[in-house]
Task: inverse folding
């Protein structure tokens, strides 16, 4: 069996990744708050089911229908207070929800994957662009990706920071395209682990990631919703790539001007 995973870059951070820390803290704090609220609402649902769900065997059909309607109304009221439902984004909803949805996650695995990717991409990009640019790209491109995806396949409820993370990844694929990404591996041969490392060019990693997201979006269009917002990933990554290319174009334009101003 062969397992590989990307390694943390050995270069030291030039500046503290403040924006990345803020985004990570917000994600984890909201995840903890959401889990607490969800558990409390689950208790309320169980109590409502206990109050309205028990019926006598000889209960009249009309009374049974009334009981069921009352239970449905109370469950709907409880669901409306669910933070995922209240702050997630659907097509036609409040535009502010496209931002709040970036900090909501439906499971521990969901928030773990997004925070790991955010920590890696955000910290690297912040060294080159600074905190303000990372925050603006994450929030702006992430909200756009969620809203764009929701309009293609309503009425799906979209949550998660993956669109914002995808924007940071897209910018990294361009900004650091001349570098190589280190990977570590473990190979289990006759139950004896062998460890090692290898490097892959950043453009190869970026193209592979984009190919996976494109294949997922195509599969969703053909076979139905898989529960993963591939379109929002592609939209966010596209904005991140455009932002990085735009930043490089501005730098190329500024160099002749700065050279002409030298005494």
Result:
């Amino acid at each position: 069996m062969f397992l590989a995973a990307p390694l943390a870059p050995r270069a030291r951070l030039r500046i503290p990744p403040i924006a990345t820390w803020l985004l990570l803290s917000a994600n984890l704090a909201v995840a903890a708050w959401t889990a607490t609220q969800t558990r409390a609402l689950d208790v309320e649902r169980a109590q409502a089911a206990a109050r309205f769900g028990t019926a006598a065997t000889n209960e009249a059909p009309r009374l049974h229908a009334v009981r069921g309607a009352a239970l449905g109304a109370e469950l709907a009221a409880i669901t409306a207070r669910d933070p995922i439902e209240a702050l997630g984004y659907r097509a036609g909803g409040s535009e502010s929800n496209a931002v709040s949805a970036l900090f909501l996650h439906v499971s521990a695995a969901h928030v773990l994957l997004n925070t790991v990717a955010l920590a890696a991409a955000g910290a690297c990009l912040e060294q080159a662009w600074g905190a303000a640019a990372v925050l603006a790209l994450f929030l702006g491109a992430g909200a756009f990706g969620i809203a764009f995806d929701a309009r293609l396949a309503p009425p799906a409820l979209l949550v998660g920071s993956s669109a914002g993370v995808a924007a940071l990844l897209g910018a990294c694929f361009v900004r650091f395209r001349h570098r190589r990404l280190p990977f570590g591996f473990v190979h289990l041969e006759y139950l004896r682990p062998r460890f090692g490392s290898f490097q892959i060019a950043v453009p190869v990693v970026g193209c592979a990631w984009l190919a996976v997201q494109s294949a997922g979006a195509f599969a969703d269009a053909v076979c139905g919703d898989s529960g993963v917002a591939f379109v929002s990933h592609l939209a966010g990554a596209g904005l991140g790539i455009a932002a990085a290319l735009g930043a490089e174009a501005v730098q190329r334009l500024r160099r002749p001007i700065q050279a002409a101003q030298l005494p």
Remarks:
- The chain has a mean pLDDT of 85.
- The chain has one domain: 2-261.
